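Supplementary material to the annual report.
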Amino acid sequence: DQQVKQNSPSLSVQEGRISILNCDYTNSMFDYFLWYKKYPAEGPTFLISISSIKDKNEDGRFTVFLNKSAKHLSLHIVPSQPGDSAVYFCAASELAGSYQLTFGKGTKLSVIP
Amino acid sequence: DADVTQTPRNRITKTGKRIMLECSQTKGHDRMYWYRQDPGLGLRLIYYSFDVKDINKGEISDGYSVSRQAQAKFSLSLESAIPNQTALYFCATSNGPSLRGAFFGQGTRLTVV
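Predicted assembly:
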């Protein structure tokens, strides 16, 4: 049973517009969430994170929103740029214990110039 | 030089062969991980190690073994490779729970024929 779900395999957005990537989770023990970005032939790189005590975290053009009651988080990229084209993985973990990341399947974002 | 280095980057092997994937890191992190990524799927944890004397199974450890030769080195072995182990393998490191999550190597593409 998948504990972290990214239901959109792909997303296309015009340059300059907002990109919204969504992620749902089922494990109520998750209290730390991360987004990773992956280019072809490279490993994932950390993008932004949020802990469960917050509902929003912002870093430049990237903002992550967390809705704990709905077990839902989203990544907003504003404005979108062609260099943002990549696969984005949502991941979750429990801070206590073994610190294992559980990943979603990823969403491929294409930003069209 | 990369912080997390995986060798080889690409490998084709035959069914039944033993193969070892190697990972070394210069970040000084205690924790090291092996993940695999299959097309259309997220990353899944194979094994993880919190220090040289600590090895733990992850979500999909069957058919794999690991060795933590030193703090900086963590190798993954497929004792008898099978075609459904064809995947992209990532090594990662972390220094405990961190707002920046784990740091990943560039990946090893393994094909079992």
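The longest strand of chain A covers residues 86-93.
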